[in-house]
Write a structure and sequence with these properties.
Structural class: alpha/beta
Strand content: 5-15%
Number of strands: 6
Helix content: 40-55%
Distance between the termini: 37 Å
Shape: globular
Strand order of the largest sheet: 1-2-3-4-5-6
CATH superfamily: Ribokinase
CATH class: Alpha Beta
Oligomer: single chain
Order of helices and strands: HEHEHHHEEEHHHHE
CATH topology: UDP-N-acetylmuramoyl-L-alanine:D-glutamate ligase
CATH architecture: 3-Layer(aba) Sandwich
Number of domains: 1
Largest sheet: 6 strands, mixed
Length: 186
């Protein structure tokens, strides 16, 4: 299905969960199409994509994310503590927002939806991934500050998305996404 749809899509193609499992059978496909891809694996999904194990992924999160983003020519959002956004040129963004609330079931779906929504509004794949990751973590931080870190569910984080957007949208002269960007890792 991904192979069939990708050539027909003009906006970034965001792939998570089952889509990543399908891609793990043939990840080289990503280099065969011009469609901008944003992949959002957790460490277990990343291990399947590269034919490795979760411990190896966790040992070299930054290096692996950078190498694979370059190899696949895709934006790679490797979820986890300090989520890594790796760009096709190998540049890394280490997300400074977020907390253990994001380990709750369904929060990855929120991230995928937020990145997809930003891409659908016209943000380039790189900016959609960086902004979405930042805002997702910021909403979780706002939730934790208000209600604590225990007993939260994904829907609770969703309720803080508007506040996170309002908190970051301070620069009316910035290009879309510019006021959400985090500094690159160097």
């Amino acid at each position: 299905l991904i192979k069939k749809l990708a050539p027909t899509i003009s906006v970034p193609f965001v792939v998570d969960a089952g889509g990543l499992s399908a891609l793990s059978l043939e990840p080289a496909f990503l280099k065969e199409v011009d469609t901008p891809f944003i992949l959002t694996p957790h460490p277990g999904e990343m291990a399947r994509l590269v034919g490795s194990d979760t411990a190896s992924v966790q040992k070299d999160r930054w290096g692996l994310a950078s190498r694979q983003a370059m190899e696949w020519q895709a934006v790679l959002v490797l979820k986890g503590a300090h989520t890594v956004v790796a760009l096709p040129d190998g540049e890394l963004y280490i997300n400074p927002t977020g907390n253990p609330v994001l380990s709750t079931a369904g929060t990855g779906d929120l991230l995928t939806g937020l990145i997809s929504a930003l891409a659908a509004q016209g943000l380039e794949a790189e900016k959609a991934a960086i902004c979405g990751t930042y805002l997702h973590g910021l909403a979780a931080d706002m939730l934790a500050a208000r209600l604590g870190r225990r007993g939260c569910k994904a829907g609770d984080i969703l309720d803080f998305f508007p506040a996170a957007l309002n908190e970051t949208a301070e620069s009316p002269l910035a290009e879309p996404g510019e006021h959400y960007a985090v500094k690159p890792f160097s």
